[in-house]
Backbone:
DNA sequence: TCTGGGGTCCTAGGACCC
DNA sequence: TCTGGGGTCCTAGGACCC
């Protein structure tokens, strides 16, 4: 993702990425008409010789064919499978309405009332009193997303899981496997997702990831959009700059102040001018406005950080209580790290006060996955940082800078081995009986 | 309006090293 | 007496995404 275009009004860097919010304006999309469905499903094992052939072709001809598949209000759609009575109604999945929850996903019926994701649930209910709020079941959504990705890997050559509800598929050079009718195949794929998973989705096909993502936003929900090569600039021109993934509220405000409204306004500027405004990120923005950008769909992805945080139902001040919360967060996050077989080097505490000011404090130590070691570090960071005048709204523990334990491991000494087994056993007990039944003591 | 939780990436500035 | 230059690592903060 590219972020940080703007910091305190100053232009900063922008990196590469692809993800974006839904655009408001819908450009004429060159959807291929009269498309026929492929006659048979593609068997990729059998197709390998073609793939090799097509890969060479793809390398020599530059034009990519990248699809972006985006599940429409995914969490709500999953809840509607479980409870069909939610169909056609304003529904939001999210946190407790009485507490401090926010909306994670809103149905299009709810969006008509102005309900948006990340909005406080209480505000959503004021905007739409008949709104049905459903508690989020993230685990379930993750499993369905996983199954869908696996299914897509059977019918598309290269699949990147961009998020729980977004996927990129690279069809470059494989047109012949789809009867030279990729546009038609987009519709087949959409139908497959509807038939086999009961999930609505939107799909766009374009020459870069960023463009496909922008395009899909113009046809949601339940749309298909194909941008034929060569039509990138004219497609983008009328869209507002805010649809570009990486241009968030701050950057949009900065650009608006400078008189930019549509992507056409960006296209009219030289790269130098945009760089003068935004620093090096201006170059990236210039490329995206002209329909260029990241076109590498990559299959594998390694996590760079693992974190847990919790906003309390009521602000807390008592130190034993706060440290108890920290202990739970540490145990949680450590279990995940051990599951992966990793060890973290950088341990970060996050502290948000009642007035929403947020600080982070980090320390880098020898690689570890050991609860007490990490807890001691977090506790000392907390004791040094906590301003006792203020009540605490949120605490978080964030681990990063991983050493792959399997990779770096020298043979374990017996003590270390014993410790590993102890920690794993504790994880199993916690998983079975709950987090509070057992804690690990010092090494 | 009153702001979740999980991430990614980027910047600046300082420490430290050669 | 006035102050190099490049590189890397670490920390804090922030923009942005779903």
Residues:
């Amino acid at each position: 993702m590219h972020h940080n275009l703007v910091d305190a009004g100053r232009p900063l860097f922008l990196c590469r990425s692809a993800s974006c919010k839904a655009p408001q304006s819908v450009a004429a999309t060159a959807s291929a008409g009269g498309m026929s469905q492929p006659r048979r499903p593609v068997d990729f094992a059998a197709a390998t010789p073609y793939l090799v052939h097509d890969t060479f072709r793809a390398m020599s001809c530059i034009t990519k064919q990248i699809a972006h598949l985006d599940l429409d209000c995914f969490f709500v759609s999953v809840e509607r499978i479980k409870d069909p009575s939610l169909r056609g109604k304003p529904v939001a999945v999210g946190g407790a309405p009485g507490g401090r929850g926010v909306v994670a996903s809103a149905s299009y019926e709810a969006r008509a009332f102005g309900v948006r994701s990340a909005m406080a649930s209480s505000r959503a209910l004021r905007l739409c009193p008949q709104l049905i709020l459903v508690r989020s079941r993230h685990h379930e959504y993750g499993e369905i997303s996983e199954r869908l990705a696996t299914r897509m890997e059977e019918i598309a050559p290269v699949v990147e899981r961009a998020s729980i509800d977004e996927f990129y598929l690279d069809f470059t050079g494989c047109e012949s496997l789809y009867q030279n009718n990729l546009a038609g195949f987009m519709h087949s794929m959409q139908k497959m997702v509807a038939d086999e998973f009961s999930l609505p989705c939107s799909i766009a096909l374009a020459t870069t990831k960023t463009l496909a993502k922008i395009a899909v936003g113009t046809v949601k929900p339940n749309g298909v959009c194909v941008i034929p090569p060569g039509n990138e600039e004219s497609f983008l021109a009328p869209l507002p700059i805010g649809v570009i993934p990486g241009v968030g509220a701050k950057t949009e405000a900065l650009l608006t102040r400078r008189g930019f409204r549509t992507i056409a306004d960006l296209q009219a500027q030289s790269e130098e001018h945009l760089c003068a405004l935004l620093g090096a990120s201006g170059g990236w923005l210039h490329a995206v406005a002209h329909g260029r950008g990241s076109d590498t769909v990559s299959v594998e992805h390694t996590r760079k950080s693992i974190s847990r945080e919790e906003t309390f139902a009521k602000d807390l001040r008592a130190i034993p209580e706060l440290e108890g919360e920290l202990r739970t967060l540490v145990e949680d996050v450590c279990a995940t790290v051990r599951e992966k077989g990793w060890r973290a080097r950088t341990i970060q505490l996050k502290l948000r006060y009642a007035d929403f000011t947020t600080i982070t404090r980090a320390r880098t130590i020898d690689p570890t996955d050991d609860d007490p070691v990490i807890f001691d570090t977090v506790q000392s960071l907390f004791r040094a940082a906590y301003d006792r005048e203020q009540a605490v709204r949120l605490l978080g523990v964030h681990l990063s800078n991983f050493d792959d334990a399997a990779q770096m491991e020298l043979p374990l000494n017996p003590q270390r081995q014993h410790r590993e087994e102890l920690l794993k056993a504790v994880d199993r007990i916690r998983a079975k009986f709950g987090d509070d039944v057992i804690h690990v003591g010092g090494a």
